[in-house]
Design goal:
The structure is a single chain. The chain is of the alpha/beta class. It has 20 helices and eleven strands. The strands form three sheets. Strands 5-2-1-6-7 form a five-stranded parallel sheet, with helices on both faces. It has a three-stranded mixed sheet with strand order 4-3-9, sandwiched between helices. A three-stranded mixed sheet has the order 8-10-11, with helices on one face. A hairpin with a 6-residue loop joins β3 and β4. The radius of gyration is 22 Å and the shape is globular. The termini are far apart. The structure holds D-mannonic acid (CS2). The site of D-mannonic acid has 9 residues, from α10 and α14.
Length: 472
């Protein structure tokens, strides 16, 4: 049997660029999934290696299951990133994660770490649904988990953890905290601040919490790297390349980008030295990424899924689908964007499709297609609204939305589980709909996805009915 990964048995050439044992915890990260391990943790390690600073080790928190802790803890937080581009894959062990917690098992330890005076930065990747926002954008105060946190249990939700951590920081005299959201959301930092304000206002200690919030910073950030879920085959390949068994390996493309609003309350890692862009305005980067990359990703996931393609690479190799993704960017999205300095949007679009075509990644259409009700508003409906506002017809964006609708209807018809936080609501809505127009109307009426404005827009409805008709 192959030995388990530990620092002593990592072959030269694959070793971390820092001495993990020399790093102390200075960052808490909520949401210890594959994406964090292939993105912020890599930037953080590089920054430490380049600057020589030892104060930015990461305490990673799994928000739900103990699976990641079970993989990482026996390996002392070490894991490898298996990079698959053109040519041979490469693999390297990352040493920046120094502590692993599981929130449901030890909620108190999470709050303690957030309150730690040595911690001045908290990052998070908890996915769109992890924020527990209501349709109108504020915190969903009807969410039972939010209510339970507000009632004073050891917190489990992101806003509850942060609120308890901030309160304790104030009590300990810890310096102000910077909270960096790394999820694919519009203006993610300010969005989280608003949710926190909603939570604070509803809590018994409203005044104090609002004061503590005022000391914290919530910069926006745009993150980019394609990181498919790891499979057993990936773990076997990592073992063959490393000569030791890594249960926590993550797979990623070579591309890696992070644009962060330069608004920190105190010290931060030298992420810029590791290639991150620190800027006064993240919005143009973020809009380009969400509306071009994530929107075409979702489009290919639904259209590809309907055609029976297992992976995004297969979907984008279908010339018709690649053409539609291209057209979505050119006809509907680019007219809504102001490019950031130095970014050519046409070139960016071409690069995006090339990245999707990477056959070594095996990014499943089902994975990208999950949580559609939370992803669509961010990725596609902003474009739809902007185009409708100038009396243009967002045909391709409507096609992507229609492909999601048809996928929901199909899953419901065939009794397939829909991987979506609003699965019940969506499947109940379509279950009694017969015919394409009825399916469109049933889903378009879900206000938590489409708001009150889009169902009332006859042009959009008509586009959806036409496009869904093409697909059914
Ligand atoms: C994808 C993203 O799963 C998805 O919904 O669109 O995770 C995508 O791979 C990343 O945002 C790329 O940076």
């Amino acid at each position: 049997m192959t030995a388990r990964l530990e620092l002593a048995n990592v072959p030269a050439g694959h070793r971390p660029d820092v001495d993990p044992a020399g790093l102390s915890v200075g960052i808490v990260h909520l949401g210890l999934g594959a994406f964090h391990r292939a993105h912020q943790a890599v930037f953080t390690e590089q920054a430490a290696a380049i600057s020589g600073s030892t104060s930015w080790g990461i305490c990673g928190v799994s928000q739900r299951s103990a699976a990641v802790r079970e993989q990482l803890a026996p390996q002392d937080g070490l894991y490898s990133v298996l990079t698959r581009g053109q040519g041979d894959p490469s693999i390297r062990v990352i040493g920046s994660i120094r502590e692993v917690l599981t929130a449901p098992e030890d909620p108190g330890a999470v709050v303690d770490r957030i309150a730690d005076p040595a911690v001045s930065v908290l990052t998070l990747t908890v996915t769109e649904k992890g924020y527990r926002a209501a349709a109108a954008g504020g915190l969903d105060l009807t969410d039972p988990e939010i209510q339970a946190d507000l009632a004073g249990r050891p917190p489990r939700t992101v806003v509850g953890q942060l609120a308890a951590g901030l309160a304790r920081r104030a009590a300990h005299g810890s310096p102000p905290l910077t909270v960096v959201s790394c999820d694919n959301l519009v203006a993610n930092g300010p969005f989280l601040r608003r949710l926190m304000e909603g939570y604070a206002a509803a809590s018994p200690d409203a005044k104090q919490l609002l004061e503590q919030l005022a000391t914290a910073r919530f910069p926006a950030s745009m993150v980019d790297r394609i990181v498919p879920a790891t499979t057993d085959a990936d773990r076997d390949e990592a073992a063959a390349l490393l000569g030791v068994r890594d249960e926590a390996v993550v797979v990623a493309e070579p591309f890696l980008q992070w644009v962060i609003e330069d608004d920190f309350a105190g010290a931060r890692p030298d992420w810029d030295k590791a290639g991150a862009i620190l800027t006064g305005d993240v919005a143009p980067w973020e809009q380009a990424k969400l509306r071009m990359l994530n929107a075409t990703h979702s489009m290919l996931a639904y259209l590809g899924g309907l055609r029976g393609y297992e992976t995004i690479a297969e979907a984008v190799r279908d010339e018709e689908l690649a053409g539609l993704a291209q057209q979505l960017m050119t006809d509907d999205v680019i007219p809504t964007l102001t490019p950031p300095d130095g970014l050519d949007l046409t070139e960016y679009g071409a690069t995006v499709l090339k990245r999707f075509a990477n056959p070594a990644l095996k990014h499943r259409t089902a994975q990208v297609g999950m949580d559609g009700s939370a992803k669509l508003p961010v990725r596609l409906l902003g474009t739809v609204r902007d185009r409708l506002a100038v009396n243009a017809e967002p045909r391709l964006a409507a096609l992507a939305v229609a492909a999601w609708m048809v996928s929901v209807a199909k899953a419901t018809e065939t009794g397939t589980v829909l991987d979506d936080p609003q699965a019940n609501k969506l499947q109940t809505a379509v279950s009694s709909a017969t015919g394409t127009a009825a399916v469109v109307d049933a889903l378009l009426g879900v206000e938590s996805v489409f708001g009150a404005d889009l169902p009332a827009n006859a042009v959009f409805r008509q586009l959806l009915v036409e496009q869904a008709g093409r697909l059914s």
